[in-house]
Amino acid sequence: MADASANRTTRDAGAEIARLIEIMALLRDPDRGCPWDIEQDFASIAPYTIEEAHEVADAIERKAWDELPGELGDLLLQVVFHAQMATEAGMFDFADCAAAISDKLIFRHPHVFGDENRDKSAEQQVRDWEAIKAVERAGKAERGTLDGVALGLPALTRALKLQNRAARVGFDWPGAEEVLDKITEESAELVEARDHLGPEAMEEEFGDLLFVMANLARHLNIDPELALRRANAKFTRRFNAIEASLAADGRRPEDSDLAEMDRLWDQAKAAEKAAE
């Protein structure tokens, strides 16, 4: 561990980034590179980019700090991969990516890099931030309130961003109670669609219900993506406990029934509560 720590403190970040860029260029070299890497394009790599970002978030959620450097490295590779393909097409390179984000950070923090006063409330900072981003969107010909919310975001995250944008111009429910009323309404419409309207209407109403649930999370200051990840993790833990209990008797879930597994679920839940 001491040697690894020493290596981290003596490595030169610029040199390591340059090395990574060189490795990626070689992997994409038509004559000497890797056939798989050579065949890729922006569209084929994009899903991996999203996946690596989620794996970073997962490591943070699990507090797996020893895994985080590797996961961040995997995510950095995605940037380098896209930049290399762009370089080959004569579009831009990694330096352009780094310059773009550096310029953006400086522009968005005039209270740090300019002459604005840093003595302001968090609320004022948010308002200033949104005003700056509005200027950026105008420069990109993004005139609508919802312009620029990326289509490639996870649907739950995009729903939250769309709702935040609309709320900034006053299109929002006053509080959580009104959202809860809307959830009741949307639930009834989903039941109506299930019973009388068919699969397409049912899917639409289910989407509406999910969208309102995301809005409830926003009103309650909950990150819905994080909440759902934690619910997934909880379900995984408890179902694993069911499997472990059955395995102790030489059985598998398919050898059990719902009543028994529900009882084992309650035991796992009680054990978790007792350990808190």
From TrEMBL:
EC number assigned by the record: 3.6.1.8
Top-tier EC class: hydrolase
Molecular-function annotations in GO: ATP diphosphatase activity
Entries under Pfam families matching the protein: MazG (PF03819)
Catalytic activity as recorded in UniProt: ATP + H2O = AMP + diphosphate + H(+)
Family: Belongs to the nucleoside triphosphate pyrophosphohydrolase family.
Provenance organism: Paracoccus alcaliphilus
Record InterPro entries: MazG-like_dom, NTP-PPase_MazG-like_C, NTP-PPase_MazG-like_N, NTP_PyrPHydrolase_MazG
GO BP terms in the entry: dATP catabolic process; dGTP catabolic process; dTTP catabolic process; dUTP catabolic process; response to stress; TTP catabolic process; UTP catabolic process
Domain NTP pyrophosphohydrolase MazG-like: 40-113, 177-238
Recorded superkingdom: Bacteria
Protein name in the entry: Nucleoside triphosphate pyrophosphohydrolase
